């Protein structure tokens, strides 16, 4: 890779200090040539994005499947007999019948493992490429799903959940990045949201699977847990045949390979403007010596605060708890087994439908409009519940 020199950026009035300190961003480089980008949406891009977005279905499927499985009598009787007895005794009041630390460990072990894995996932993705992280995440999830489906004791069950969490940590970090780097700039918002679409469809699919497998006695829960291997297998096989992104190749110094891949995914050899922006943005990014330390500096504080608090406040609305434990919550409210799973499926269906609306409007209306309208809807719904 060519060495970064201040002379290359003199026409943009960018100082060496700004580049080293991190105040200069890739956006400053790309704005001047963005209108010169050529290319089209090739079938290659669409297929690559669909396969990569399958990673979102892994996360969504597990969100939807765990709550349904923990409401199944056969599953509780085998692994959590004390919870099963409480459930059978609590005919009139469902409060606290699922209060069990081991049951909580079964659910939370995946997300704790995912949190820890995500701390290392960015380094793996940066050093070895997005494709490597996708494949590794798919393999880990595939093994975890197999162990869970064949579990004979609680240790196997939780170990399988930990492997699922590692897979989610790798996949959730690499897949959105892969989608955004493969997509043409004018469709980046919509294609990047394919990850969210896959997540919501995974939740909906899991709810429907639980509705069917609860009738299969006594091993229906094994089928529910084991079917997580299907999207994991698709993501792993797809990852083997997928290329890495041009950005990732440039980031690791493969300049010519990155250009050839960009020409292939854009369907044209006239990619000079976009390729040059990628090269310059990569050089600027590599010139920043302490990126995480720079986040704590005053100039980066507004972005840092918003990036932390926006998802935090969304989670504090309680939506994640509803998605994780929907069948259990509905049962505790007095719904029967079938009714609780149907209610969960309806919730997942609404979530998936709203995601498609976002895809259709995100590149036309912009991110800010969707953010504000979504916030207003949440405020109204929270007040109605209160």
From TrEMBL:
The Major facilitator superfamily (MFS) profile domain sits at 48-386
Mind telling me which CDD domains this protein's record contains?
A: MFS_STP
The molecule here is called Sugar transport protein 7
- Membrane-topology descriptor: Multi-pass membrane protein
**What is the originating organism of this protein?**
Stylosanthes scabra
Q: Where, by residue number, does the polypeptide cross the bilayer?
A: 41-61, 102-121, 133-152, 191-209, 221-242, 304-328, 340-362
Which NCBIfam families does the record cross-reference, listed alphabetically? SP
Q: What is the lineage of its organism?
A: Eukaryota, Viridiplantae, Streptophyta, Embryophyta, Tracheophyta
The family classification in the record reads: Belongs to the major facilitator superfamily. Sugar transporter (TC 2.A.1.1) family.
SUPFAM superfamilies, per this entry? MFS general substrate transporter
Q: What is its main location?
A: membrane
């Amino acid at each position: 890779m060519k060495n970064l020199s201040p002379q290359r950026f003199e026409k943009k009035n960018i100082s060496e200090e700004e580049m080293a300190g991190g105040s200069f961003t890739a956006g400053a480089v790309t704005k001047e040539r963005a209108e010169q980008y050529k290319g089209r949406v090739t079938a290659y891009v669409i297929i690559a994005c669909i396969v990569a977005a399958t990673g979102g279905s892994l996360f969504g499927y597990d969100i939807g499947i765990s709550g349904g499985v923990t409401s199944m009598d056969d599953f509780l009787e085998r692994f959590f007999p004390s919870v099963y007895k409480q459930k059978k005794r609590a005919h009139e009041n469902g409060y606290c019948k699922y209060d069990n630390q081991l049951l909580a460990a079964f659910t939370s072990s995946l997300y704790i493992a995912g949190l820890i894995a995500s701390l290392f996932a960015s380094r793996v993705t940066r050093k070895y490429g997005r494709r490597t992280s996708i494949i590794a995440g798919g393999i880990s999830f595939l093994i975890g799903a197999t162990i869970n489906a064949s579990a004979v004791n609680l240790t196997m069950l939780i170990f399988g959940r930990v492997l699922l969490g590692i897979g989610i940590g790798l996949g959730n970090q690499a897949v959105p990045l892969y989608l955004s780097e493969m997509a043409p700039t004018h469709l980046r918002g919509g294609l990047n949201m394919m990850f969210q679409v896959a997540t919501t469809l995974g939740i909906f699919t899991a709810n429907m699977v639980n509705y069917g497998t609860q009738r299969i006695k006594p091993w229906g829960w094994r089928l529910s847990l084991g079917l997580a291997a299907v999207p994991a297998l698709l993501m792993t096989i797809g990852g083997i045949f997928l290329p890495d992104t041009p950005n990732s190749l440039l980031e690791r110094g493969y300049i010519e390979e990155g250009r050839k891949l960009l020409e292939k995914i854009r369907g044209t050899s006239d990619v000079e403007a976009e390729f040059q922006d990628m090269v310059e943005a990569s050089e600027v990014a590599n010139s920043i010596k302490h990126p995480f330390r720079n986040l704590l500096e005053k100039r980066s504080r507004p972005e840092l605060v918003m990036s932390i608090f926006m998802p935090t406040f969304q989670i504090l609305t309680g939506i994640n708890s509803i998605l994780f434990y929907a069948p259990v919550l509905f049962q505790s409210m007095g719904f029967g087994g079938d009714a609780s799973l149907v209610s969960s499926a309806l919730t997942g269906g609404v979530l998936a439908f709203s995601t498609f609306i976002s895809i259709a409007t995100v590149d036309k209306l912009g991110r800010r409009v969707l953010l504000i309208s979504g916030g207003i809807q949440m405020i109204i719904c929270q007040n109605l519940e209160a």
